[in-house]
Amino acid sequence: MKIDLTDTTSGQINAALMKARRATGSPAVGMVLTLVLVTDEGTHYDALRAASEASKEHPSRILVVVRRPGRSPRDRARARMDAEVRVGGETGAGETVLLRLHGELAAHSYSAVLPLLLPDAPVVVWWPEDAPERPASDPLGALAQRRITDMAAAEDPVACLARREAGYAPGDTDLAWTRITPWRSMLASALDQRHAPVTGAVVEGEEHNPSTELLALWLADRLGVPVRRVLSAGPGITGVRLYTADGEICLDRPDGSLAELAVPGQPERHVALHRRDTPELIAEELRRLDPDEAYASALRFGVARLEHLPAAAAAAADDATGDGDGTVEAAAATEADAGAKPAGRARAGRARSAKAGRAGKGEAADAATGGDAAGSGEATA
After folding, report:
1. Which of 118, 330, 335, 368 is most buried as measured by Cβ atoms within 10 A of its Cβ?
2. Which residues contact 195 (CB under 8 A, 6 or more apart)?
3. Which Pfam families does the record cross-reference, listed alphabetically (predicted)?
4. Number of folded domains in the chain?
């Protein structure tokens, strides 16, 4: 059911919501949270569609705030609110209210949103684009237990990473961090299988990809080892290598969907590691509303330590382990190197696995042969 309201008030919107619920045969409120989207006319459709998909897993009242301050002084001086109420149909078990705030009211959106929040229910605010530098200090952000931003939508995502660190408050999170959840789970699982100490790591990904930076910071923070950031052609994160005493743990995803995991002493295997859509990311964020301590620790650990080396230094840094605990180095890789590395790493991984297996049996001659094979595999990378 859809109800259009022009030049309305929050009281009339609440009355329309009650009317729509009764008309659809569900007068009781069965929603678990209020999700506030702060967007504009150009992006509100895609954001609302993503929120509606996530609402199927987490029934919620979705409030879409579209600010239209106006261009002329006359338009800016006039305050008006138009609303569109949707219940049932595509909204599922939830409700959607699209608020268009005109004129002076656009600068006071919290006063229009506050009366429409579900009582005694958590509030989540999501800025798909143009998020404030300090989300917790924003009037709408102050209403929420969880504040979601997306660094990937910023003009300079890496510079935005530093701003997120400076403006962080408990309850803040970012979809760039949510995107690396499968990577973090896969790497943690791989380390659980090999209890050898990690001595260093390399993270490869696109140049302007904040998720790659966050993954490097997380590894440096949690492992306390040098982590090097290498640029690749993408898409997204393309590979992670962890150096251990038993060999190299390698997780490669050159095509953005299927990854190959190589662990010393085990056969290589393919794992699903596709790039997830926004509805999946929002649904994951709505599963937990407490402060994300791992995200906060990664932000605070390494943003100021990121060091981007020139392209000429990439080859020289390729064999270096880095100086100092948890130092994050960024090195640029040539396109030829980026294209050749996946196959070379796969051969090197197989050679190291063979070496580890033979060395475990105490056959010195075979171990030496495995070392030669590993060296040959590295030479082709």
Report:
1. 330
2. none
3. OpcA_G6PD_assem (PF10128), OpcA_G6PD_C (PF20171)
4. 2
